Amino acid sequence: MEKTPLRLAIALIPLCVLSGCGTFYAPPELLPISKVVELCKSNTPPPLIIQRIRDSHTTYALRGSDFPKLKADGVPDSVLDYLQKSFADDLALQTRYWITGEISLGGCSWCYPQPVNVDKLESGYGLVAATPPRRYQTKRPMGTPDWLPFPQRPTSGASISVSDIQQMSRDRVPDAQIIERINYSSLTGVIGVNGVSTVRTQSVPGLSGSMLALLHDQGVGYSVLDALQAQFLAQFMTTASGI
């Protein structure tokens, strides 16, 4: 089973207690998002790029609009999908860990999904403006991105699907109206195995990185993609927490 920064951090907590953190393990060298793009542009095979990201234990806190931008920079669909899945998986695990009463993961910023500025191809705390991951946040796990609305906003009882968003964009509904609908509706078809239903203990993200990039190709605006990603992840975290 692959290890993400959060999984690795949880596994190392007993060692930290016994050794003061540092005796047995050195922090990993995180892979900058610029290096991911560089590898893609150099025609490195996607499986090798994914393995390189996995080996670095790096997860990126990507907004919805980041995926079409990365695709325009040459990042292939399979890598986009891995970036989305690893981000969602870490948020879900982080949430489940938080609801057990563990407030933080200790003194490591690399344990958390790294903030990203795709326009500048920068990533990492200290390079990209973000709330420090170890700062206490009321009613939300430490390290949750500032732009992610968790706890999830109360919904109006309405539901919305990706196909609804596609149709509204085709019908030239203003982005502000689409975003309002997304913000106060439950997303359908994006949580569960293959985006349909949950048949195992861990929810599966059904909104892939390549899907977000495709939506932009079909005319969905950046601000709508950001709202969709934020609502999707908030709903995903809520499902993971069982609240």
Offer a few descriptive terms.
two-stranded parallel ribbon, mainly alpha, 243 residues
What would you note in describing this structure?
By secondary structure, the protein is mostly helical. The chain has one domain. It is built from nine helices and five strands. It has helices spanning 5-19, 33-41, 46-56, 66-72, 77-99, 162-170, 175-183, 209-217, 222-241, and strands at 60-61, 114-117, 122-123, 158-160, 185-187. It has a three-stranded mixed beta sheet. The chain has a two-stranded parallel sheet with strand order 4-5. A hairpin with a 4-residue loop joins strand 2 (114-117) and strand 3. The two termini are 27 Å apart. Residues 1-5, 14-23 and 193-203 have low confidence and may be disordered.
Short description:
The chain has 243 residues and is mainly alpha-helical. It has helices spanning 5-19, 33-41, 46-56, 66-72, 77-99, 162-170, 175-183, 209-217, 222-241, and strands spanning 60-61, 114-117, 122-123, 158-160, 185-187. It has a three-stranded mixed beta sheet.
Please give the structural blueprint:
Layout: H1 5-19, H2 33-41, H3 46-56, E1 60-61, H4 66-72, H5 77-99, E2 114-117, E3 122-123, E4 158-160, H6 162-170, H7 175-183, E5 185-187, H8 209-217, H9 222-241
Parallel strand pairs: 1-2, 4-5
Antiparallel strand pairs: 2-3
Helix pairs in contact: 4-8, 5-8, 5-9, 7-9
Q: Give the strand order of the largest sheet, numbering strands 1, 2, ... along the chain.
A: 1-2-3
The number of helical segments is 9
User: Roughly what fraction of the amino acids lie in strands?
Assistant: 5-15%
Order of helices and strands: HHHEHHEEEHHEHH
Unreliable stretches covering 5 or more consecutive residues: 1-5, 14-23, 193-203
Mean pLDDT across the residues is 83
Number of domains: 1
What is the rounded distance between the termini? Answer: 27 Å
Q: Which structural class best describes the helix and strand composition?
A: mainly alpha
Major sheet, described briefly?
Answer: 3 strands, mixed
Total beta-strand segments:
5
Question: Considering DSSP H and I runs of 4 or more, what fraction of the residues is helical?
Answer: 40-55%
The value of Rg in angstroms is 18 Å
Based on CA inertia axes, which overall geometry fits? globular
Looking at how many chains there are and whether they match, the oligomeric state comes to: single chain
